Amino acid sequence: MNARKRVVVAGTAFGRIYLQAIARAKADYELVGILSRGNAYSRACAVHYGVALYETVEQLPDTVDIACVVVRSGATGGPGSELAQALLRRGIHVLQEHPVHHREIAGCLQAARQGHAAYAVNTLYPNLLAVRRLLAVAAYLREQQGLAYIDASCNSQVAYPLLDILGRLAGGLRPWAFAAPAENLGAQPFTRLAASFAGVPISLRIQNQVHPRDPDNHSFLLHRIEVGCEAGVLSLADTHGPLLWNPRLHAPRDATDRLVMAGPGSERLAGPTLVTLDAHLPGSYHQVFNQAWPDAVVVALGELCRDIEVPERRLHSGRWATEVSMAWAEMNRLLGMPTLIEPAEPAALALTELQARADAVLAPCGDDTAQLLGALL
């Protein structure tokens, strides 16, 4: 990367994450302003970071390189895409927070061409460290053996970035297809869909529920993903890790047609049944908000900077963003409107109690692995 890019952030709700990201990457980016309607929180943010507060695009100085638009797009009832287009026509490169409807993306790409600027949609979650590790290992599996299936679960609030992740896992989005949801029996929170990306069969479970006054809460999970291949199953237990590898159980048969469970010929059974591929276990949600998500924004900014420096990349970036949004719209047509729920604040359980219950369950005959293997011979 060349000289530090001068950045403004539009919006200070989720935009707080972007402000933290730029503060964490001072060697590459300089925060030079906040673009907001001027509410008290935005004014406080401007004071905290020691930058100017702007209320209109016209007020921005010509020295701004990048604008991070973290304002709701038309897809969720906000003016974010109109704001992005005004910035792009001024020649300011834009990183826009998802979700964005594909027709809005088309308008932004047209404005980007008019302003000779780069434009990208940030789906955030594919840039998380745990997800990038998932993608790296899955690319190796795809190269070596191909993928047999993908199984994924998420809340509908984060389904847009899930489709981005699935496309990357499969090696592409096209051709994609979604099958009508299976019938839910009873009050099940998840809706099941069958899908296919680039020829890879995908099973989806979407918690299509939302609290109308508290939409950012009440998800059972963010993302859980499983990728199967001939050699085993790669799993992302949670959006933030850990990444797990489960080698496939396969034992040879002897002359009597019995499975060879130990001794010669059973060497592949000597390894662990499950391996953690992450060097570090996931941290707290405080660390997610203050480190993991800002770091993911830095990765997205880095990709935008590569599009700035190599304009030939912009066509691919725009096409990918458009296809993710189109697939999301098609999936949403099948899912229908979310079910409205109004549960109380979820009760937390003490980790110490959960661990105590697990530790209380003992093996019936101890845990002497050598003795167990001897019994099988």
Q: What attributes characterize this protein structure?
A:
Dihydrodipicolinate Reductase, domain 2; 36% helix; six-stranded parallel sheet; 2 domains; Rossmann fold; 377 residues; alpha/beta
Describe this protein's structure.
There is one protein chain. The chain has 2 domains: 5-124 and 288-332, NAD(P)-binding Rossmann-like Domain (Rossmann fold, 3-Layer(aba) Sandwich); 127-283, 2-Layer Sandwich (Dihydrodipicolinate Reductase, domain 2), CATH 3.30.360. It has 10 helices and 16 strands. The model has no long low-confidence stretch (mean pLDDT 92). The N and C termini lie far apart (61 Å). 36% of the residues lie in helices and 21% in strands. It is globular. The protein is an alpha/beta fold. It has helices spanning 15-24, 40-49, 80-89, 102-115, 129-144, 159-170, 285-309, 314-335, 351-359, 369-376, and strands at 5-10, 29-35, 52-54, 66-69, 93-97, 119-122, 149-155, 176-179, 191-197, 200-207, 209-210, 223-229, 232-236, 243-247, 275-276, 339-340. The protein has an 8-stranded mixed β-sheet, covered by helices on one side. It has a 6-stranded parallel β-sheet with strand order 3-2-1-4-5-6, sandwiched between helices. Strands 11-16 form a two-stranded parallel sheet. α1 (15-24) packs across α7 (285-309), α4 (102-115) packs antiparallel against α8 and α5 (129-144) runs parallel beside α6.
Outline of the structure:
This protein is an alpha/beta fold. The protein contains 10 helices and 16 strands.
Indicate the radius of gyration in whole angstroms. Answer: 24 Å
Q: The biggest beta sheet, please? A: 8 strands, mixed
* CATH class category of the largest domain: Alpha Beta
Q: What portion of the residues fall into strands of 2 or more residues? A: 15-25%
CATH architectural label of the largest domain: 3-Layer(aba) Sandwich
Describe the global form: globular
Content-based structural category: alpha/beta
